[in-house]
From TrEMBL:
Gene Ontology CC annotation, any one: endoplasmic reticulum membrane
Name listed for the protein in its UniProt record: 3 beta-hydroxysteroid dehydrogenase type 7
Pathway involvement of the protein, from the record: Lipid metabolism; steroid biosynthesis; Steroid biosynthesis
Organism this protein belongs to: Microtus ochrogaster (Prairie vole)
Role according to the record: The 3-beta-HSD enzymatic system plays a crucial role in the biosynthesis of all classes of hormonal steroids. HSD VII is active against four 7-alpha-hydroxylated sterols. Does not metabolize several different C(19/21) steroids as substrates. Involved in bile acid synthesis. Plays a key role in cell positioning and movement in lymphoid tissues by mediating degradation of 7-alpha,25-dihydroxycholesterol (7-alpha,25-OHC): 7-alpha,25-OHC acts as a ligand for the G protein-coupled receptor GPR183/EBI2, a chemotactic receptor for a number of lymphoid cells.
InterPro entries membership: 3Beta_OHSteriod_DH/Estase, NAD(P)-bd_dom_sf, NAD(P)_dehydrat-like
Pfam families for this protein: 3Beta_HSD
Broad EC category: oxidoreductase
Length: 369
């Protein structure tokens, strides 16, 4: 990869570049990668905000395409120096079938790898997930663990299964020869639960709170820690990894990195209240209002209803046995591997991450502000 501060030469491709995280990566690259000549944004659904980016100095190329279609992926990858593969089907609510989740997340990733090899693209950054590790089906806590913490990673749900398989494909591809004979250099980033501007689940919780007269009802004990990381910092980690992968190929190739920042360790709901509280919502109860066994019964009923109604309507409530288990199991990370390997420091402090997220919630349609 040729380096020059004056003449931008690099071509980057971001798959899933119109999604929640993808948009932040795209904007961050344009702001903080001075060597960029062309930025290709590949997504199933192209967003209108891409148009405004086309007026800047970097050539922004919007590519409507499907990662499950190998020829579309190969055409987009050809001629790029770095691929950031963020596209994925993020579904833990039963909106898509397990087969579709597998096809997009696993076959789609395989297509990206093969496209890099066939077209001679040498650097691949994959957005994995904390979910490839856990929480596992046994509900074992992962308390402030790092990339080397032993943990029994056993999954049954299609989403974590697909992310784990895809991550494995990416890591195993490290070192394979790409067209031209150079080695492919890959690595995987594992965000914990991402939050920030554009976060759909946060929007859902906010709207739910508004419907209940400004109240949310505690469902998870405050003592359960759930790892969260600000979207801007996750994007920054992608930009840094992409930048450093060539110089530090021997160290970083085939590695996994948790995404982390200074966001506090809290339960899923208490963490959300850091933003929803200042927007006028209250979390009712210091303990869960319903006992766990009753929540599990409701979650199971929801799963049953989803199955029964499937021929007529898609019923996809937030509460199901999987989301209940994830929200009720401690899973937090404490690591400095990204700092040691490629000098990562969070770009946004907790105070700034919080302020930006609150500002976004306040601007939502139907907001109480
Ligand atoms: N949201 C979260 O808390 C976390 C997300 N992740 C991972 O981060 C990545 C991005 O997730 P989000 O931004 O939250 O999701 P998102 O749903 O907002 O973005 C995913 C993007 O991929 C695109 N996409 C989906 N199927 C596609 C296909 N067949 N071909 C081309 N593009 C396709 C979508 O149109 C969307 O723009 C995913 O790989 C996800 O697994 C990892 C950890 C946590
Ligand atoms: C009412 C319930 C008891 C609470 C429901 C909350 C859930 C909807 C969310 C709790 C934990 C979330 C997941 C977690 O942050 C890890 C994730 C990583 C990803 O890669 C994708 C998203 C997610 C699975 C995230 C999804 C929503 C929760 C299950």
């Amino acid at each position: 990869m040729a380096e020059s501060a004056q003449v931008p030469t690099l071509v980057y491709l971001v798959t899933g570049g119109c999604g929640f995280l993808g948009e932040h990566i795209v904007r961050m690259l344009l702001e903080r990668e001075p060597r960029l000549r062309e930025l290709r944004v590949f997504d199933l659904h192209l967003s209108s905000w891409l148009e405004e980016l086309k007026t800047g100095p970097v050539q922004v190329t919007a590519i409507q395409g499907d990662v499950t279609q190998a020829h579309e992926v190969a055409a987009a990858v050809a001629g790029s120096h770095v691929v950031i593969h963020t596209a994925g089907l993020v579904d833990v609510f039963g909106k898509a079938s397990p087969k579709t989740i597998h096809k997009v997340n696993v076959q789609g990733t395989q297509n990206v790898i093969e496209a890099c090899i066939r077209t001679g693209t040498q650097f691949l950054v994959y957005t994995s997930s904390m979910e490839v590790v856990g929480p596992n089906i046994k509900g074992h806590p992962f308390y402030r663990g790092n990339e080397d913490t032993p943990y029994e990673a056993v999954h049954r749900h299609p989403y974590p299964c697909s992310k784990a398989l895809a991550e494995q494909l990416v890591l195993e591809a490290n070192g394979r020869k790409v067209n031209g004979g150079l080695p492919l250099v890959t690595c995987a980033l594992r965000p914990t639960g991402i939050y920030g501007e554009g976060h759909q689940v946060m929007r859902d919780f906010y709207n739910q709170g508004l419907r209940f007269g400004g109240r949310l009802f505690r469902a998870v004990p405050a003592s359960v820690e759930h790892g969260r990381v600000y979207v801007g910092n996750v994007a920054w980690m992608h930009v840094l990894v992409a930048r450093e992968l060539e110089q530090r190929a021997a160290l970083m190739g085939g590695q996994v990195y948790f995404c982390y920042d200074k966001s506090p360790y809290k339960s899923y709901e208490d963490f959300n209240m850091e933003f929803l509280g200042p927007c006028g919502l209250r979390l009712i109860g210091t303990h869960p209002l319903l006992p766990y066994w009753l929540l599990l019964l409701l979650a199971t009923l929801n799963a049953l209803l989803q199955w029964l109604l499937r021929p007529l309507v898609l019923y996809t409530p937030l509460l199901n046995p999987y989301t209940l288990a994830v929200a009720n199991t401690t899973f937090t990370v404490s690591t400095n591997k990204a700092q040691r390997h490629f000098g990562y420091k969070p770009l946004f402090s907790w105070e700034e991450s919080k302020a930006r997220t609150i500002h976004w919630v306040q601007a939502l349609e139907g907001s109480a502000w």
